[in-house]
Amino acid sequence: GKTRLLIVGGVAAGMSAASRARRQNPDAQIVVLERGDWISYAACGLPYALGGDVPDLQESGWEALVARTPAQMRARGISVRLNHEVTGVDARAGTLTVRDREAGRTSTEAYDHLLLATGVSPIRPEWAVTDLAGVHVLKSIPDAQAIEASLHGARRVCIVGGGYIGLELAEAMRARGLSTVLLERGDDVAGRVLDDPYRALMRAELERRGVDVRRCQSVDGLHGNAGRVTGVQTDAGRVQADVVLVAVGVRPNVELARAAGVRLGRTGAVAVNARQETNVPGVSAAGDNTQSLHRVTRRQVHIPLALSANRMGRVAGVNMAGGDARFPGIVGTGIFKVFDLGAARTGLTQGEAEAAGLNTVSVDVVSTDHAGYYRDARPVQVRLTAERGTGRLLGAQLVGAPQSVKRVDVVAALLHRRANVTDLFEADLAYAPPFSTTWDVLLVAADRLM
Ligand code: FAD
């Protein structure tokens, strides 16, 4: 019979894999099993949808964030089953146990090749496991719908967690005119992604725009009344809130992988080879549930982001369907903004490089995003980090006007090639007054490190 490919999870990695597998093998039978109601949606757009930055939401509803509908996938010969949760795997028999949540039925499905694209789940600390209404995480469209409903009539919001999702939510809540408190357990926001001085710049922007940022505060519990949350109890006191948004991190969904006898890596996410294959024959993994090779440190890391999820899915899809593709690894690139300030990083921060035992040197440069005499010039700050002695590029961090920090991509591309500061300095970058300075801030930084 036909080769049967089963894919668990229908968002970025799962749908990329399905599309690619279809192209690679027009005859294969491809089935996507998704426990939720939605496939192929842009989770990255959720904070912006809540903040009013997705105009199509008015007209099309949450479908505005959907890249491809189940009907479009079916038209390509990919079978999509919503509300189907995979509850077990028998890798030896090559079968899955699938529960149809609507019909309340359980069935067994056979596969020739299985892809686990199960993503991550938001962490809910013990205090956040509650029956009180008004306490939310943000991961999926139904989460966003629930937040939207909760915000109706609310005045005060407390966001717990100062990672990029918490920060994006803070902006969204202020855009809705809500009084917003952001609690961060660590000594500053964006602790996992930026070095200290750059974190402080992001916090200053939040505070300038009315976000009450409280650092070094950890949450002990919630207060409630008549079934609704009324506040958050921290080790430093009480924060009144009508709505509490919990954004304290994610953990990979690896239960099925475990059940299948698939090896997890040191990060706790699924370990795979460059073809996205696990240690169990016939079982692949891709996306946020999977770790990947960091090309700068050569270590396995778990950095759950959308481009790598899509790319891993694409690689897995080609290979499952009989082709040959490799995932090249990542270099730790990330970007986000709060209000009028963007932040981007690639490679390693100074802190990360030191933690990795590298002998590093960093330089900080402040310049303008374009010619200072041309209107609306704004400061852009760069920290460039290299290996002492060899000059090998290790990383860059930028903070400035949102579009200006996208130049991080130049360094990201060079990190893929294991380039050094001279390579960066010698790059023929684009210049005209509305776009950059003659010597772009990245070139100035490279020059200072040579
Ligand atoms: P997921 O999107 O997690 O999808 C996995 C799917 O598998 C889920 O739908 C789940 O229901 C399903 N599933 C799991 N277990 C089972 C089972 N047993 N049976 C059936 N189905 C199952 N990334 C960026 O790069 N840039 C950003 O700006 C950005 N912003 C973000 C903002 C927010 C609020 C969030 C939540 C994420 C953001 N991300 C961003 C991350 C990005 O959304 C993810 O990297 C991407 O969605 C990962 O796709 P995935 O397919 O690997 O996993």
UniProtKB/TrEMBL annotation:
Keyword field: FAD, Flavoprotein, Oxidoreductase, Redox-active center
UniProt keyword annotation of Flavoprotein present: yes
Domain FAD/NAD(P)-binding positions: 4-303
Cofactor(s) the record lists: FAD
Signal peptide: none
Residue ranges of every copy of the Pyridine nucleotide-disulphide oxidoreductase dimerisation domain listed in the record: 336-438
Membrane spanning residue stretches: none
InterPro entries reported for this sequence: FAD-bd_OxRdtase, FAD/NAD-bd_sf, FAD/NAD-binding_dom, FAD/NAD-linked_Rdtase_dimer_sf, Pyr_nucl-diS_OxRdtase_dimer
Keyword Oxidoreductase among record annotations: yes
Stored PANTHER family: NAD(P)H SULFUR OXIDOREDUCTASE (COA-DEPENDENT) (PTHR43429:SF1), PYRIDINE NUCLEOTIDE-DISULFIDE OXIDOREDUCTASE DOMAIN-CONTAINING (PTHR43429)
Family: Belongs to the class-III pyridine nucleotide-disulfide oxidoreductase family.
Record's protein name: FAD-dependent oxidoreductase
Lineage, highest ranks first: Bacteria, Thermotogati, Deinococcota, Deinococci, Deinococcales
